[in-house]
Amino acid sequence: MKSFQLRPLLLIVFQVVIFKFGHSYSSQGNNTNRIRCLERERQALLNFKDELVDTYGRLSSWGNDEDKRDCCEWIGVYCHNQTNHVTQLDLRFKFLRGKISTSLLELQQLEYIDLSFNDFEYAPVPEFIGSLTELQNLILRSAKFSGPIPHQIGNLSKLLYLDISGNDCNSENLDWLFNLDSLEYLDLSYINLSKATNWLQAVSKLKSIQELSLSDGALPETSLSSLPKINGSSPLTLLDLSFNSHLSNFWTLVSWFSNFSSTGLSYIILNDNNIAGPIPDVFENMASLTVLQLFRNGLQGGIPKYFANMSSLVTLDLSENNLSGDIYEVMMNLSAGLLEKKLSLLDLSWNNFSGLFPNMSRFYSLTDLGFQNNQLSGSIGEGYLRLPSLAFLDLSSNRFTGPIPDLSFSPLLRSLRLSNNTFDPPFQLLTLNLAQCKLVKHYPIWLKAQTELHTIDLSSIGISDTVSSFFGGTIPTFLYLNASNNQMYGSFPNFSFNSTDFLTSRDVALSGISLDVSRNKISGSLDFLCNVKEWALLDLSDNLFSGQIPDCFGSFLSLRYLSLANNHLSGKIPYSFGSLSDLTLLHLRNNSLSDGIPTTMRNCRGLKMIDAGGNRLTGNIPSWVGDSFPELIVLVLRSNEFYGDIHQIYVA
């Protein structure tokens, strides 16, 4: 998944345009005590509200109460500073349902309507909107309209901004565009235009158009012989024809639109179109091109050398194609011109590039760099990623070897993906503390190469991986390991240490070994515990362990803390618990342990807390508990099947 691609670009650009055109008459928040709202228009708005279902009370400021009488102060309503007419109605993201009342016809001075991201229950776009002739901005994006786009919209000769995208609408022809001479922004994305054979002729009449999006519009094929005559008078800067894979003459269309523009195209979005073959020279003379998105197509061959001279290009996304070639040569070619100075996003992921990693430090403006899923190999040279603005780097699923690249020159780095390579870290740590750092779900590859770690804290880092992915084979020779509060799952491998020198070291003799994997989803038996004798702390609580507790605790002479609570353990409490002379805390709560408390446990005289509640323990409560545990502070035996006289127990 490529999280850094500029795929929300249109939304970002469009919001800027909305701000530009939509708020020039905003008067909301004006400090005044007089009621500015015109009564006829206030009543029209209340009638409009009556036809809506406002589940979340987003229009609670609209009403007849004395403190609500000025409609110019209502949420989403804006009035002209001098005439007091309602000029803007901005109800986007209000989660409204229902129908649009014709009472809006009373608002003849409306210049701006935004009803996007509501639910009009697949009603048709109202035809009467075409009578609001002062409208400059009409935004109905993703508002669950359906049916044909009314041709009456063509009456809105002052319209600057039109967005009907994301609805279940259609248009059999686009003749209604012919009169929209002032239109600067048009978004008909996801509108069915499959019968609009005159779409290109209609677009050619938009003399003021700056941004045009016809994404996923099922656009009908256009004959090369019927292309409209070009006069190059339009200031078109953005063209989005993505998700129109049935079209076969994309490069011809791009060339036509580039000549149609008097200022030069700045944004070209052609992703998801199944465009095969090499990248042609159609972009070579586009000096103003800033963003080029061609991802998820069938492009083949390499990247043309002329790209190096595209001095305005900031975003280049060629991911998920069939491009190939030696990546070193490709990037050397691209660094031969002015491109390297401005390029901010480069995504070549999911292609067939091969070869050694190039020196990317020439592209010092890069913030996002993706080479995921290619066939790049070898080590990454020192200084090859000297990129001070880099925020996202994805080199995963290649064949890189050697040390992890030095990223100390990228203080802004926020996302790093190096998985599925064979990097070797250039260091061996003794202590590692990543507690509460939110990492990726899987264990970092470099962590698996650490063989000398003694102290490890991976608690609460978001790991969702199998236990064996870290503890596979032989585990590191740790003294302290805390991997609690994660999402680890699977069974513990039946591991053993691989260093006899470590096991006899002074550190182990003094402190013992601590293992805390509590609050995970680990299952299987506890037999792995028997392979180590030097346990000092064991917290395996709140997991899915099952089976019997192994009777090998006679070897754990240093064990001071044992928690097996909240698992699925069954069988008897082992007699070998009686050898735990240093044990101070014992938690066995909420399992299915049966039989009684073994008499051998009277030897555990250092116990300060025993919690065996919520099991199936039976028999008399041992009378020797009070005599044998002089340090005991907490004793919990509830929710078992004990019987007998409790007065027999006396805790000194």
TrEMBL record:
Residues 101-300 form the Disease resistance R13L4/SHOC-2-like LRR domain. SUPFAM superfamilies: L domain-like. Residues 39-79 form the Leucine-rich repeat-containing N-terminal plant-type domain. InterPro entries: Leu-rich_rpt, LRR_dom_sf, LRR_N_plant-typ, LRR_R13L4/SHOC2-like, RLP23-like. Coiled coil: none annotated. Keywords: Glycoprotein, Leucine-rich repeat, Membrane, Receptor, Repeat, Signal, Transmembrane, Transmembrane helix. GO terms for cellular component: membrane. Residues 1-24 form the signal peptide. It is found in: Membrane. It is a single-pass type I membrane protein. This is Receptor-like protein EIX1. It comes from Sesamum angolense.
